[in-house]
Design goal:
The protein has 6 helices and 9 strands. The protein is of the alpha/beta class and 220 residues long. The protein has one domain: Dihydrofolate Reductase, subunit A (3-Layer(aba) Sandwich). A 9-stranded mixed β-sheet has the order 5-4-3-2-6-1-7-9-8. Strand 2, helix 2 and strand 3 form a beta-alpha-beta unit. The chain is globular and about 45 Å long. NADP nicotinamide-adenine-dinucleotide phosphate binds next to strand 1, strand 2, helix 2 and helix 6.
Length: 220
């Protein structure tokens, strides 16, 4: 399994404003992300991202195939009217829930044409999920946030690559979500160490930074 995290943040590390605006990338950068999607088997997001942005997660700005879409959603809260579930019969869509998800929620999601994967008890067990996905032939996953999901993937050492677009803007706001949320570490020295593999300076003023984990287990 190859796992890439991709995100866009402001210079002060925010991935959206407190009011929920997450339009951080330029059109050029969005095209890059869509091209990246065409080379991925699946795009994965957390349920809070679906509730905030109602994304499509297709590769419509690039030439190539759409990846499958996966939502990490313990209780099966994804709305039936979300764009993902409304288009689940056109583009493969999977919702990863836990044993906490009510039968009715699971039934409602399946009714839309999406597949339900049960992994874990409280929050979604990402290791179990990734191995279930691998059995379904999904080998390249693009994780597109938000901050809570990014934390879980990084914390478990599951990311092979992290690509971050830094936009030349400052959003501020103590309640604005950041690139990585979760519980965090007490000491910087315990933090996840990464190596800068590539830095691209764009005409838009954006920086696209490519990192790989310090302990290299990557072939990227
Ligand atoms: N700029 C960007 O690149 C970008 C990209 C994506 C999102 N965003 C922004 O990010 C914000 C949402 O981010 P967020 O951090 O609040 O939430 P998130 O990561 O999208 O979703 C987190 C939720 O996923 C569920 N979950 C289940 N299992 C999990 C696990 N193992 N690890 C982590 N989460 C798990 C939990 O809800 P349950 O307990 O209910 O399952 C959790 O609260 C939005 O404002 C969105 O616009 C920005």
């Amino acid at each position: 399994m190859k796992v890439t995290i991709n995100a866009a943040m402001t210079l002060d590390g925010k991935i959206a404003t407190a009011a929920g605006d997450s339009a951080i990338s330029s059109k050029d950068d969005l095209k890059r992300v869509h091209r990246l999607r065409t080379t991925s088997d699946a795009v994965m997001v957390g349920i809070s991202t679906v509730l905030a942005d109602d994304p499509m997660l297709t590769a419509r700005l690039a030439r190539g195939r759409n990846p499958a879409r996966i939502v990490v959603d313990s209780r099966g809260r994804i709305p039936s009217e979300s764009r993902l579930l409304r288009t689940a019969r056109e583009t493969r869509t999977m919702v990863a829930v836990t044993e906490r998800a009510a039968k009715e929620a699971v039934g409602r999601i399946e009714e839309s044409g999406a597949e339900v994967i049960v992994a874990g008890k409280e929050s979604v067990d990402l290791r179990a999920l990734f191995s279930a996905l691998e059995k379904k032939g999904i080998r390249k996953i693009l994780v597109e946030g938000g901050g809570e999901l990014n934390w879980s993937v990084l914390r478990l050492g599951l990311a092979d690559r992290l690509i971050v677009t830094v936009a030349p803007r400052i959003a501020g706001g103590r309640l604005a979500p950041t690139l990585v949320e979760g519980d965090g570490f007490d000491q910087i020295s315990k933090g996840i160490r990464l190596k800068l593999a590539k830095a691209e300076r764009k005409k838009t003023g954006e920086l696209v930074l490519h990192y790989i984990p310090g302990k290299i287990h990557s072939t990227f």
